[in-house]
Amino acid sequence: MAARSDPGPRRSIHPLHAILLAFPFPLFLGALLSDLAYSSSFQIQWANFSAWLIAGGLLAGALTLLWSLINLFRNKMAPRKRPIVYFSVLLAMWVVGLVNAFVHAKDAWATMPEGLYLSAASAFLALVAAWIGYSGFRTGKVG
Prior knowledge:
Strand content: under 5%
Helix content: over 70%
Structural class: mainly alpha
Protein name: DUF2231 domain-containing protein
Organism: Teichococcus oryzae
Domain DUF2231: 14-134
Number of helices: 5
Order of helices and strands: EHHHHHE
Number of strands: 2
Low-confidence stretches: 139-143
Distance between the termini: 22 Å
Number of domains: 1
Mean pLDDT: 87
Pfam family, one: DUF2231
Transmembrane segments: 49-72, 84-103, 115-137
């Protein structure tokens, strides 16, 4: 008889964690889109929109990061690779977003092009974090 390699059932994230995780990607994506609009139109208000969207993404990202950190230490089982990767991606998203906020605090045109690149990186990292978070984590055997 062949051995089963199924590591166990998937466990979804807590509903409040899922709500918090839903915010960073659209906010950072909105910042990227407003940076693109600013780079093509030179209307300063687009840079202001981007700065506010980044601030919102950082706030929601910090709460999500805190929740995932608590889950890392609360888990009674041996540390698993996936929650550590999830926390690391969230941390990288938040750090890149913070640097992006500092860049967007400069004068409007001084934010280009590095603000655009940092917005793209933070949106991508937020997408990866959401993908990992919503796909569920593996737990050990039940029983």
